Amino acid sequence: MKLTQNRLKQIWGKMLSGNFEEFGILRPELQASWKRCLQYKVDPYIPKIPVIGNHDLLAGKMRLNELIDISLPVMKNLYDFVKNSGFIVVLADTDGILIESMGDQEIMDSAQGVSFISGTNWSEESAGTNAIGTVLKTLEPIQIIGCEHFCQGIQNWTCSAAPIHEPDGNIVGVLDMSGHVKNVHLHTLGMVVAAVYAIENQMLSRRAWRNLEISNNYKNTIIESINEGLLAVDPRGFVSHVNMVAAGILGKDPEEIINNPISMILGEKNKLIANIILSQGDMTDREVNIYNNTGKTTCLITSRSICKKNKNEGTVILFNEIARARKLVQHMSGSEARLTFSDIIGQNEKFMETVRLAKAISGSISNVLLLGESGTGKDLFAQAIHNGSVRGNGPFVAINCGAIPRELIASELFGYSEGSFTGAKRGGKPGKFELANGGTIFLDEIGEMPLQLQTILLRAIEQKTITRIGGHDLIPVDVRIIAATNKNLQDEVGKGNFRQDLYYRLNVVRIDMVPLRERQEDIPLLINHFVKHLCSKLNKTKMMQVDAKVIKALKNYHWPGNIRELQNILERAVNVCQGSVLTPDDLPADFKVKDVRQVLLPVELYEKEMIGQLLKKHNHNITRVANELGISRSTLYRKLYKFKLS
């Protein structure tokens, strides 16, 4: 039932006096609002609506900057539609604070008389029943007419308001249109609701645009952060995306590439690659040469088609520079020279002369042959020589020629082509020489290399090219060779086990390693260095000291396994030591000097006795004896033959 303003006024007056007999004839939302106002103890005769300070108003506007930016044009359109009809359009925040308003000057002046201005609080708690405050309670559009207002001072006004929702559903503000009650019209609320829809659609569009912008930023960041070159081609063959790595490989600026045909970008020299890409087929790690104005770059190309409902939407191509990929593989696999001459410890004159020679030839490009017993530090010298050379920033690839089965060493050194044997990796695999291109290859235990392979190695050194196993293409390689062995290669040449011409090719600069037994003054330095390192490695809480008796015992030992054996003995001692000082009790039984007989025995007699004791200890297990001595099985066999030990 529609109530007249006079009837509403009567019911309102009775309510204030505590008479609720006719309260039930009010519409439900109005009943609920008036009850809330009574609970809030709102003054129905309030002379003035509370106003917040300018500072708080400014802060509120800044917080709702996007809402205001979107709402003002819509409010302007709504106002233009009702211009000169006695209405004011206002925007309020979720606290009921008016933050923007526009209308005819006459109605704006009237609004000021009832404090309907920016900065006033029109929540129900502050101003009683009104469209703005009641919307914030019901979360639904509403129209409040005349005496439906709880406060008497605004009962000659009508207001229509609707909540504004963010895309996620939360209310961000309220749009209201108010005027004198004589101008009330049922369609006013519909106009406000339509305007709110327009605001919400704009917010949704802006949110979608912002999300798209964020997505594009993510995409561009990902594209630029990968190490490979990336190129995206649309179904027409035009480039839609390119990163800086790909642009560098192609020798062009990104602006020259985007939105241009891939065939034009690649040019005549790369016509084959363009045809491969435009064929829209998938491929993985296909090796190609890409030519630009400064030369060529060898890459592995991987391409993937983008399909939607069996329709091609474009192709993504990855360019992986082989040189970069090899450097990464070497870093990850540990084939990297980490040690320098500053890591070499010693003061023995003969040893330091060896170090000086190594430093002197490190700047050369000549091949180096390191000769010496196992455990004397040939690997350390090889790394130091590499790092001290002009190739120090290039790869350092090490291979132990004695640790790889004879049937595999050729493919390890020179690689293999696809299909060269059963189980061969698709696309083939580069060998150590290719991986070392531009750097150094360290051939450890070169004396163990089979004769047949020595011939291939000699050809690679002389021609500076290699051919993969099963392949036909000559691959240029620019490497410096550092070889090492514990064998007497001249004797091996005499026995027919090592090619004389290869020996001369490797033996350009010969460095003879000094065994530890000839470096007695270096042993205390090495002990302190290793103990410090081991305490850190083994998570010892305190740095251990070394008893003088331990140093004496270790200085008097013959050290057939050299520095490697010393390091192993000290690691065992640090592990078993219960205190903060290493004592003779922490050494293996063989190192506890019980009399001077061990020191005074001739070197070879002592070595023979030592090997004999270890054979008994390990029940003639050759592997265990060799491990404890820190030498290879082949070296141990030679010593057994030499000393006539069965």
Give the N-to-C terminal Cα separation: 120 Å
CATH topology of the largest domain: Beta-Lactamase
CATH class of the largest domain, named: Alpha Beta
Shape: elongated
What is the residue-averaged pLDDT? 88
Total helical segments: 27
Based on helices, strands and strand pairing, what is the structural class? Answer: alpha/beta
Major beta sheet, specifics? 5 strands, antiparallel
Domain Sigma-54 factor interaction: 344-575
Protein name: Transcriptional regulator of acetoin/glycerol metabolism
Keywords: ATP-binding, DNA-binding, Nucleotide-binding, Transcription, Transcription regulation
GO molecular function, one term: ATP binding
Question: Explain this structure to me?
Answer:
- By secondary structure, the protein is of the alpha/beta class.
- It folds into 4 domains: 5-206, Beta-Lactamase; 227-323, 2-Layer Sandwich (Beta-Lactamase), CATH 3.30.450.20; 334-512, P-loop containing nucleotide triphosphate hydrolases (Rossmann fold); 601-646, Arc Repressor Mutant, subunit A (Orthogonal Bundle), CATH 1.10.10.
- It contains 27 helices and 19 strands.
- The strands form 5 sheets. It has a 5-stranded antiparallel beta sheet with strand order 2-1-5-4-3, sandwiched between helices. The protein has a 5-stranded antiparallel beta sheet with strand order 7-6-10-9-8.
- The longest helix is centred in the first third of the chain and has 39 residues, at 187-225.
- It comes from Desulfotruncus arcticus DSM 17038.
- One of its GO terms (molecular function) is sequence-specific DNA binding.
